[in-house]
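Predicting holo structure, uracil bound.
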Amino acid sequence: MAIAFPNVTVLNHPLVQHKLTLLRRKDTATSVFRQLMRELSLLMAYEVTRDLPTETVAIETPMEVMQAPLLSGKKLCFLSILRAGNGMLDGMLDLVPSARVGHIGLYRDPATLVPVEYYLKFPDDVQERLVIVVDPMVATGHSAAAAITRLKQAGVSQISFACLIAAPEGLGALADAHPGLPVYVAAIDRQLDGHGYICPGLGDAGDRLYGTR
Ligand code: URA
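Done. Tokens:
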């Protein structure tokens, strides 16, 4: 039985699903994997930004003056959860080149399993921006939840989360920690294995992006 996650949008666009299938394949080469993640992230950025407010302004075309929409409201910031989140930045920035970028590094303490922050850099005006947190994989959801807690501590009030593949366990943990958070995913997979990997998933996203294994 499918578990309902009310604030989760699954991007079932055929291009997204096709590219995700190619990404998952174990024989997809590192360079192709990186390019596919870039393309998927661009398509995701299109959906994640669907509700951005616009205002109507007067412009002049070569033919005449017209009233036309332009983005208004908060500027964007992408927050990458290191290291695999970096694989989603280029595609997002292709679509929104003026966005600022923050980074957060977290590792899991082997004794307590609690995420520990080892790196943090936000733009100075992060609290004035709509922040889209990116991480291709949501497994336990603990890193995602910790990153969002950190943003809230910094005064950010408008936050969305974008990932490619999520485990139901991770989405549940994220919803418990941050009720109402808008989450965008390309797929919700079956479950975590005993080592915290998503099944069927795509393996370790960081290793596949950077060819480190
Ligand atoms: N991170 C990954 O890169 N892959 C998983 O399956 C889970 C977490």
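DSSP finds six helices and twelve strands in the chain.
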